[in-house]
Structure prediction request, 876 residues.
Amino acid sequence: MLAGIARRVGRRLLASIPALLGVVVVTFILMRVLPGDPATFFASGPSAGQAEIEELRRTMGLDKPIPVQLVRYLGEIAQGNFGRSMTTGQPVVLDIKRRLPASLELTCVALLIALVFSLPLGVFAALRQGSVIDHAVRLLCTLGVCVPTFVSGLLLIYAFYYLLGWAPDPTARIDIFASPPPDITGFYLIDFAVTGDWDGWWAAFRQLMLPAFTMALFVLAPLARMTRASMLAVLGSDFIRTAHAMGLSRLRIIVAYALRNALLPVITITGIVFSTMLGANVLVEKVFSWPGVASYALDALLASDYAPVQAFVLLMASIFVLVNVTIDVLYGIADPRVSVA
Amino acid sequence: MKRRVLLQSAAGAALLAGGGMPAMAQSRAETLRYVTGATINTLDTTMFGATRESFGLSMNVYDRLFRFGRKKVADYWVFDPDKIEGELAKSYSISPDNKVITITLRDDATWQDGSPVTAEDVKWSLDRAVSAKSLAAPQFTTGSLTSVDQFKIVDPKTLTVTLEKPDRLALANLCVCYAIMVNSKLAKQNATGEDPWAQEWMKTNTAASGAYIVESHKAGESTVLRRNDKWAGAPGGTLPFFRRIIIQTVPEPATRANLVERGDADLSIDLAAADLPTIEKSAKAKLVSMPQTNGFTHVSMNTQAAPFDNPKVRKAVAAALSYDDMFKAAIFERGRKLYDGTWTTTPPDASFPQPIPNKADPALAKKLLAEAGFPNGFSTTFAFNVGAAATAEPVAALLKESLGKVGIQVEIQKKPDAEFNTLASERKMPFFMDGATAWLPYTYYFFYLYFTREQRWNFSSFKSTKMEELTLDARYQTDKAKYDDDCLKMIEIFNAETPLIMLWQPNHDAAMAKSVDGYTYQFYRQADFRDLKRV
Prediction:
């Protein structure tokens, strides 16, 4: 079975290379077709004239025809050189290396919170179909999905930081007066835990809670609704009736038999939700000054800063591929029949 | 609480002396937390694409030969371009023919690495400014500083700057953000054959002598500064109050406002206009507001293309706008009006920007339009950039309404910043709104920069031989009365031709903790930490 999984993973990764290449080319061309000239934008200092714009265009390689630029760009990314961001002044690889763990940590914790809440809520709603609980869950989900994250984020800040003062100030990953942990994985919670600095861990954890809940609230709906629907389908099937007839305990039927079988579509949706969250959490990152990749890419896009946007899109595409492969593997664990195919 | 002890590196002495909680409170008091929506993208301000936030950092980290003094306007401090003081320079003298400036350096000045500042370093820095491909070179040409031959070392503490003609802005150009003085020994160690001026290295490293030392710099997140206790340029020998500065990027304006209001942050200068009244009422924060004396918000028309190539059409637009409504709706009257001037053809003084005699007068607008051959008006587009939407959107809406009344149909276009800049630079917008600030707010410089030559900052593509002649004469004019006369004529031409319509000088609003004092409005519109103190 393991060998089968490995083969399938390898095949999937190989098959994704043309897609990634396509993403690179399309982004590259799209950025250049969009109105807005980065050289003009960045040379807009006082007293900068046409000569400076031309000079900047030359150093950025924008004076060459687009096909030449594309070939040069592909050659450079093959060597791991993604160019330099004009917005931060740093090489893009360095920026992303520092910022990706921040986004991943936030997204993972938010997803965890969302799963911890949505699975039981979905299950209860399915078990008590049409009851008050079911409607309450539906209301919560609707609210979560209707309220945009920047609104819920600002509301949470207003309540927990501004009015109650429970939360630390909503800026960055850790109190600005404290020092970050040594850079081991880039995940603050892990790095603090590894170094045994529990004060630091607690500080980073507190900082993480508001943005994570803001994001979790937003993805609660698809997860809970999918769990509910899937549970309903499974609960109505023959083997559950048989299990009841055999006199198995209610808990065992629901968790071991019904939930496990209901998980397959939930895993799929979790994968999609995860990828979406990583790219779409730009508003949360902005509201909480979270130094992540999404807000980085947005700033770059507004400034027509090509290199970071291209690298970001490629990164997101790669993560999408990886997430899909992971989901495939998880399928195999949830339902062994899948890996045979 | 333990983690807050990290402040000790700056306030170590205080901690040792006081010990325990009071000392820690002390260290917070001596730390200034500044929150901003922007990013410092380079430690070398002269780099192409340097953000305004980088200019601010540079002023605190690097010294220049000279700096502008400051003066009190009403209750607040504003920079004074007519008072030039030595920073790294101890003194200077100008030859009788106004062509040779002799500069003597401070004896005790050292670089942040401890080595002494020499005339050789200064020459290298000036050479760098005029030779390296950077934003400094075009700026320096406005002061007739163009060639390395102009800078000569006399002795280790003295050098001369020689001008071909007595350019009135030579000295002022040595005060601007780009005129950084660099530790040449350190920079040269990091220069390469391809990069003789160490531009690559200086993007992320400093070789400075200024009031603050960069302790850490994470672009887009935070930058931490430590006071340079050996700073020689301190005015009157008094070091800046704050021992430590934390500059933090907080993109969301509402969050910045919350932070200042709750007293968690000490200073922010880019809050949303809607949050300002709350700050004014707040118990822990206060607002320091003053008009941006060197700036103007304007509505520009492309004077090289129909219909705006006709001065009568431009005058008609200027007479049609409902200025007071715009002033109220866009900036809540927080600024200085640049309309409603009380003169007709000759301005009362040679200062600029000053109120221009434009008033809402729809009847006059209609009459002018008819004279210009557009009795039924015409259609055009009006553009502004997304970044300025908070003020530009109300202006655009009111403009559309008031021009509609005189027959001019306006379609509003909202453009992303990069696209807007490109269109402005390529002169593709007939009619748009923008803002501008001049670093060197002398009347001649305003007209030279914004109303002559084919270049990015000539917003309305204005062409006037008379204006070119006047600016050229004013530039090298050593007779004050003749210079003032030139300036008056420039303002007259501006009013008669109306290449663009001045709206107002918006306020510079700095929100800060009640305890912070001494804030100065600077020409580069950033906080100067060196003047600030906690009282």
